[in-house]
Amino acid sequence: MEPILGLADPEDRESRGASATGRVPREEEEDRASLELTVVLPVRDEERNLAECLRSLVGQTEPGFALGREWEVIVVDDASTDRTREIADAVAAEFPAGEDGAAMSVMSAPALDLGARGGFTGKNNACWAGAQAARGRHILFTDADTIHEPGGLSRSLREAERHGASLLSYSPRQIVAGWVQRMVMPLIFSELASVYPPGQVNDPNRRVAAANGQFLLVERRAYFDLGGHRAVGRSVLEDVALANNMKRARRTIRLRYAPEAVAARMYRTTPEMVEGWTKNLALLMPRPVSLALWRLLDLLLFLALPALALGIPHLVTWQRAAILLLWLRTGFRFYSRVARSNFGAVDVAISIVGIPMFVSLLLWSVIQHRMRRSVRWKGRSYNPNRH
After folding, report:
1. What's the pTM value of the predicted model, to 2 decimals?
2. Contact at 8 Å (CB) between 214 and 257?
3. What is the side-by-side order of every strand in the sheet holding 173-174?
């Protein structure tokens, strides 16, 4: 029988100790956990980002937390067509295997089935493969567009232990390029902060769950007990799906903004930004069409109120003042909302100009998800409604 979904033949998996569900038996899984941490980095055509990301990761060594002794890095190449594999191999060659095994290894993701029988997106397939090879008691899934600050990994482990978190996720400081991103990204992240308030996410008595796949640290046992990325294999919003699984299982999750630990450069161009948010926005926002209409109303009020105050000749002074005060209140309310994004004051202020682009992204994402039932990412098409 041919392998399905990038997984090995059932008999092969049984011989390695994996169950028919794709989960590793607890005894064998715990035997593999000889290190404190494994960093799993799934990559596909990341030649522009990978070197900087890897340098920031391998530079995390500190006393008592040495790469190759207490922790390891596994790069999983997802059929890259550029120099991604070459870059990863070159960095890995600088850290030869020692007595404790490889400090950094590069592996290829299993073959991906994108047909009707397929059960993985490319990223989930790569993450699951990396997790099964991991030797850490904790596993950090991170992206190639991240830059990790010195000491961030060890501090995250201590934070997870301090809070008893089975899942700890950081929202990185966002690095944006160009005026379009500076105007649109604060709008998106402010809405994310409204839909997924960290206080509610971290509250075990609230149903809200979320995580950011750019920095997603999981406790090994909890991850495999719940099926890991295999259990959310078809999801294009796997980070939120993993967080939901953890919270439903009454595991502690913790999400926070962590600019001191990690930064991310999500997109370098506007077309990349459009493709990326088209894939996610309709899933992230509970009522995307209503949200688009509310933001258009914000823009309409911001433009129309001063026009009314200054353009209607028969208004008396107090009437003009009242309209202008309403305009100031509208602007302050909008600014306060967007300030939740953790972007700088200038970016927050100019984001009002980005509303038409933001609305276009929301509606285009809805069209792709609900009408065309297809989204593209990294050269592949996925049906986002398949679970």
Report:
1. 0.89
2. no
3. 146-148, 262-264, 173-174
